[in-house]
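Anyone? Bumping this.
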Amino acid sequence: MRVPVGVRDWLPDELARKRALETILRGVFERWKYQEVQTPGLERYEVLEAGIGQNLSKQVFRLTDRSGSQLVLRPEMTMPIARLVSTRMREATLPLRLSYVQPVYRYEEPQEGRMREFTEAGLELIGTADADTDAESLFSAVEALDAVGLRMVRYDINHVAIIEGVLTGFGYAGDALHDVKRLIADRNLVDLRALANAHADAAHGEMLVRLTMSRGQEEILRAVRPLVVTEAGYAGIDRLADLLARARARGLQERIWIDFSLLRSLAYYTGIVFEGYVEELGFSLLGGGRYDTVLPRFGFNAGAVGWSTSVERLLIALERRTVCGELQFA
Amino acid sequence: MTGLTIALPKGALYGKSVVRLRAAGIAAPEDPGRRLFFDTNDGTRLLFLRPTDVPAYVEFGAADCGIVGKDVLWETDRSVCELADLEFGPCRLVVAAHRASRYHEGAPLPTFLRVATKFTQTAEAYFAERDLSVQLIKLHGSVELSPLVGLADLIVDLTETGTTLREHDLTILDTIGKSTARLVVNPVRFRAKYESIVALLARLNGGISPPFESMVR
């Protein structure tokens, strides 16, 4: 008798480690005044579709109940919380600070750090749109991972309006804009160069490739400004500069970098985005950002920013650090 | 001192990969022999892999980056960043049929054909785009044989010059895509080992590229 592909049991000593880590995370969530909620593992398919369209559909476990209703095993926690807030917490005083530590399900090829069932832990800050809350979200994430012992995690940050402001200046719109953003997010420099050359000229193509490769701090923010043509793009630069200055004030300048190609899910994020990673692992440990258009799709007019991590990935990162130190062959 | 782990494909692309790496200052061995991996004096670790395994090593982060043919990337869903077209190892993925068959270049194909190939994902996408239902037969070698012995009506296979196809009386009906060697990198390692990877890319391209900041002003 075996368990299905991509899921696992937790024996007492394994579960004790996982619980200890979750306890530390919950402690940080409480310190930042976030209240924990739980939502059901099963959601109606419409909830997911309302929030993110068809994008996740390939990774979603779908099922049909006896009355023919389409259900999903929730693949992430932001949509269930958006549903919760826009219905049962409609009258709550904003801003709302909600946390969760719950299993989610994704139909993916299992590999290290990617299981079909994993525990997602995170925070959602709802009902705000200002720079203070961008900073609160990022720094609560840093503090949570620091608290579990991952002080070496580095964070890449970006504002999604910047690249759009550059691409608009280069004449991209509609489908072409979406396609070129996809290639930048995937860092597919070969197809990006080909598309840019076909669309405009080699100089633009070279500039986009360089932009996609770039990484730095204030100096690249100053450099990108002359390429941006949209008001939203300028606002994005200022917002990112503000976040970087705050990070510096917290002594995080060695750990926070700007990467203009960090766009995460294209259909979803509207402002600041960030991701945390360590050198030893080939996958990110944490991700988040501002998603001001999601709650309005649920009929609730509020901006929001949030992040989440995978408890299992944190355990892997901690194990790599303490046991191996360095990857060993044979 | 690159500190990088680079996945290299054994076989057709190996020799040219070595030439490019050496030009970039990485002393790759001419022949991997029976070695599985090799550490150069400058701190680079080279892994010698079956070409089709390169994307998996890079996606899982077992290698930071790798060299692999675009034809292998077509057949994989692995998420790796394609940083550069290294422009060696050119070949084409083609649809071919026996010269004496009813199928010709430019003529519409009937449905329910039997198609033999190693490239089942790419072939499936190609025929689906044309609304043709086909029966795919996954083979692992000597695909050219299959139409000759009646196993398949068509084949989808790689060809460099077309010589092998001609020798087996096969004629090309269509080109699905053109492939060359690519430099691929793990998305997280690109950030975590940014300086090393950008330096490697510049050296493989035969020169130091100016950083983005210096292009703008």
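Late reply, but here is one note on the structure posted above: The two ends of chain A are 31 Å apart (CA to CA).
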